[in-house]
Amino acid sequence: MMSYQEQVTGIAIELEEILDLDDLEAKVYLNLLRAGPITASALAKELDIDRARMYRTVDKLVSRNIISTTLSSPKLCIAADPHDALKIALGKKEDEVNKIKKSGEAIIDKINNEISTSQVSTVPTFRVVQGRQNIYADIAHLIENSTGITYIATTLDDISRMYHSTIPEKISICEKNGGQVRLLVDMTDPKLAPFVKRFNATETRIGKLPSKGRMVVQMDKKMIMSDSAASSHNSNADADFSLCTNSSEMVDNIFTLCSFLWDASKPLKTIDVKQYVRKTKS
């Protein structure tokens, strides 16, 4: 059974993704919810944070309506109701999407009317993508446009983060287009099975992965690969890097590796987790 601190840490990680907060901002918000109205100075002492840094964090959260301050002296910090905070985050994202759609359609018209785009390149491309949000956006785009088999081989922690992105929605679109998303994850705790199932992959299997990174590969098309940046020990989303390429040789090699790992794994529905744990320890 998870301790209280482990539960708080898990919630903080999810808040970072949902409300677009960094590690300290999530901790400040959660502690304000727990402690109630408190001064920034007292909160800095409780979290063992430099006061100047705490004041900057409070000002940033106030500007985003995640917390508010009183007019009293000294000022007290008050956390917004979680439902209100979620509405604010959703509203911000909707405004960003609408702006991109409106501006994007206009710029595409300009490009089509004023710039020749007839050049087509068959040379393999390579990109290094920084930032978890950018990587997840690339993965979502890959899955949405897939009509064949796509493998996702990654850690349980990475899957819990992906769940709060648009990736699960794109899996449904992929399946409607005749594609499959096969999720391969290393899991030793049977209590965590519901967190894996809710991801809604076409099929999920449990197996030993060669690293703590992530591999996402679309048959004959594209792959997105990270090293240990997806590890649960790394809560800094900006420190996550991925290589994205359409090189047929690299794509085929990683797809073959994922196929091998898939065949050596066990279906989530039938696996005896205790037996699996004993086998991986031996």
UniProtKB/TrEMBL annotation:
- Superkingdom in the source lineage: Archaea
Q: Which Pfam families does the record associate with it?
A: TrmB
Q: Which residues form the Transcription regulator TrmB N-terminal domain?
A: 15-82
Gene3D superfamilies, A to Z: Winged helix-like DNA-binding domain superfamily/Winged helix DNA-binding domain
Query: Could you identify this protein by its name?
Result: TrmB family transcriptional regulator
Taxonomic lineage: Archaea, Nitrososphaerota, Nitrososphaeria, Nitrosopumilales, Nitrosopumilaceae
